[in-house]
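Sequence in, structure out. First:
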Amino acid sequence: MDPKKLRKAYMQVLPHLNKALKHVQSELSDVPPSDFVLETNIKPYSSIKRKMLQHQIYNPIELPDLVRGRLFFSKDYNPKEVVSLLKKIFGKKVTKASKKDTNDCGLEYPGVTDVSLDCDGIQFELQLMPLEFQPHQ
């Protein structure tokens, strides 16, 4: 695919990505900062371009981690409790929650739970991690 078309497709979905990012940030703004730390971002264009070319994807919306984040939780919580909390906050927007021991690059991710959110057609990948993982990003 022509790189100019990839960039154009990305630029067209960027406002939707920003909206999804702000939605998740807003919904989680009231969780106690002593128990939760949220880090979010939009996947950089260079990474999106590489993945789209590698997997022959023409629409960036097909990538599951365009908008992503990590929610670090304190020792007072476990992953199941955090998933339950997210389901209460986001309702049907939570489309999947699963334990993840490796990522797509083969790196080990012991203790990480992935939660997929659907924010008006934009997939948001949220990784849940114990707070002690935060310095080891």
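Second:
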Amino acid sequence: MPGIVLGFNEVNNNFLNDLYKKINFDIGEDLIELDRIPHISLMRIQKNFNDSTIKSIEKDLNSKNIDNIRINIKSVGIFKKDKDKFVLFLTPDYDKNFKNVHKEVWNLFNKKLDLLQEKYYSPESYSPHLTIPIKNPTKKNISVILNKLLDIDLQISLNTKSIMFINTSKETDKTIIHVNKILSN
């Protein structure tokens, strides 16, 4: 699904991938996908977009000076997606700096793009999360991974590096980065 997201620096991407590798190793099965781009979605947009949409998003993002921020993970969460499919995620602290960046990006695109799931992503009702990319997120698999996460100190600080426009194809399950703006220091 297409969205505007915060991406992390290489050190933090490697840290998350190493964490996922360790969990896979500990459980003896590759339940967590390692080829995903760790990110926090700021908003979801229309499924049908074109080169003009991409250029507009890039122009708008480049018109703003957005600072990188530190994202402090504080816990783990879960929600039900379908009958037997769940989403497991790391929960960041939605502190003042994070709120300011989210609101700035939301205001930049709110009237320009066809937004999806606004009730979950608007600044008034936003629940930020860093999805753990589980291959088959059944109750059983979620429970196994959650059990391992509960043994880990989840007080993790991650540094953002970029804001991106990405799309994950349902057909190929691959994520494409259409726009990648490096954030200011």
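Remark: The longest strand covers residues 70-82.
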